[in-house]
Write a structure and sequence with these properties.
single chain; 467 residues; mainly beta; Jelly Rolls; 3 domains; 8-stranded antiparallel beta sheet; 3 helices; 31 strands
């Protein structure tokens, strides 16, 4: 099945300036899903949400097409279920022509997930989701097809609850969608990592990304190829952006362009497996007659949005699902080399930029840390010699720290190299002290404590291989 990603976003800027017409909610930093920030909606008989729309280009929350069919996936964690007879709405599709919500997804008092089709009512899952657990919710909203909600465990990928409505969606296309309590709700939940697919041939984004996907943000760290605005990258790297407190500006003709290098993907919260999309995000405004464009530079190729020039700060976005310099899938090294910025393309007024970032949609990968035997010692050897993994004697003066040593009767089996990694009763050589006297040379091994080693292994999450 073809995958056509039309929009993705998280809350990594630290505010909701990149969303269309946000309403309520709070930034969350402790309960997040493979990210730095999530959005919490804790409501009692109220509404609160962030919207994204297919109405046009360049504005916050706008994607590049206006599809009649769409799949929506996001990470979701509910802390408090609604009370008896109440609902907690988690998503909605709004008909801009008919000026009404045509479809909803919600969670009921028991944790069942449901889909609402305007004119046909609700359909509910038989199974339930649990509180305080991260799920990936996928919602199918396709003209001429039945609506669907699927809840999968984020970490397991297993389907926990699902429902397919008994009636097809027969209404006009949805011009606006939203996540959060779009209708009167009671409950407390967290939202993160939205991905949308839209178009004639689409599929559930999870089937492309798996449930272990994330949207991460790369902030600027250096001067790029163009540098025609006032100020430096340090004026546009804050998250959330700080308005006029620090900014870069240009005006009086044009074009004037700046681009800047960004952080490496190794600094993202989760280990990057496959990159599925890259997006320039520029928080800007214009004063007077201004035409400005958010831009992205990859290799020697430069791409940008159409002109914009809002009177107040908001975040404009340019999404690239493939690397513009190769027209092929993004590689990690290519993402690490991109630059983001803004073009004051024309106009006597002034373009002000308070934030410029790169946002990355990626599937995560697991980086395992397994202990490997570098040296071993025979417990009955009176000379206490050290052997390498092939059984060869290692002179004391050739022993090295940051290696694993184990007492054992013989070397690991030569025909089973995987067994080198399986023993867990190992000691990491943290230091070595050599002593020479009349009896010869001896060595004292200073081993690290197990809890130190385990902590060290856990914290080295952006490299590969053993210690």
């Amino acid at each position: 099945m073809a995958h056509t990603i039309t929009y993705f976003d998280g809350f990594e800027i630290g505010d909701v300036s990149e969303w269309y017409a946000p309403s309520g909610g709070a930034v969350e930093t402790s309960l997040v899903s493979l990210s730095r920030y999530s959005r919490r909606f804790n409501v009692a008989a109220a509404t609160a949400y962030v919207q994204y729309t297919s109405a046009g280009l360049n504005a916050p929350g706008w994607w590049d097409t206006a599809p009649l069919a769409s799949w929506h996936s996001f990470h979701f964690r509910i802390a408090t279920l609604p009370g008896a007879g109440l609902l907690y709405y988690i998503w909605g599709g709004y008909d801009s022509v008919g000026a009404r919500w045509r479809s909803y997804a919600a969670v009921d008092q028991n944790g069942k997930v449901g889909f609402y089709n305007d004119g046909w009512g609700w359909a509910w899952s038989a199974a339930t989701i649990s509180i305080n657990t991260w799920y990936v919710i996928s919602i199918k909203d396709v003209f001429g097809a039945a609506g669907q909600v699927i809840a999968r465990g984020r970490d397991s990928g297993a389907t926990v609850a699902s429902v397919t409505h008994g009636s097809v969606n027969a209404d006009a296309e949805r011009g606006i969608h939203a996540i959060g309590p779009v209708n009167t709700s009671t409950g407390d939940a967290y939202f993160d990592n939205l991905v949308v697919e839209g178009g004639a041939s689409i599929d559930d984004p999870v089937n492309l990304l798996t449930t272990k996907y994330a949207v991460g943000l790369l902030a600027p760290v250096g001067t790029g190829y163009y540098d025609a605005f006032t100020g430096t990258y340090a004026d546009v790297d804050e998250t959330p952006p700080d308005g006029d407190t620090t900014k870069r500006t240009a005006g009086g003709g044009g074009p004037f362009i700046f681009t800047q290098t960004v952080q490496q993907t190794a600094g993202l919260v989760a280990a990057v497996g496959t990159v599925r999309g890259v997006k320039a995000m520029v928080d800007a405004k214009g004063a007077g007659v201004v035409n400005s464009r958010a831009c992205l530079r990859s290799g020697g190729t430069y791409v940008e949005t159409s002109d914009f020039g809002p009177a107040a700060y908001c975040t404009f976005q340019k999404m690239c699902l493939t690397d513009p310099s190769t027209t092929l899938a993004w590689t990690i090294s290519a993402v690490d080399s991109v630059q983001v910025g803004c073009n004051h393309s024309s106009g006597a007024g002034t373009t002000s930029v308070t934030g410029a970032y790169v946002e990355v949609l990626y599937s995560t990968t697991s980086v395992s840390r397994i202990r490997r035997i570098d040296y071993y010692r025979k417990p009955d050897d009176p000379m206490q010699r050290f052997m390498d993994y092939k059984g060869r004697i290692v002179p004391y003066n050739e022993l090295r720290p940051n290696r694993w040593v184990r007492r054992m009767t013989g070397p690991p089996r030569a025909d089973s190299p995987a067994s080198f990694w399986k023993w867990r009763d190992l000691t990491l050589i943290e230091g070595l002290v050599w002593t020479q006297d009349e009896s010869g040379m001896s060595v004292e091994i200073r081993g690290s404590k197990d809890d130190f080693v385990d902590s060290l292994i856990r914290r080295i999450s952006d490299s590969s291989g053993g210690l």
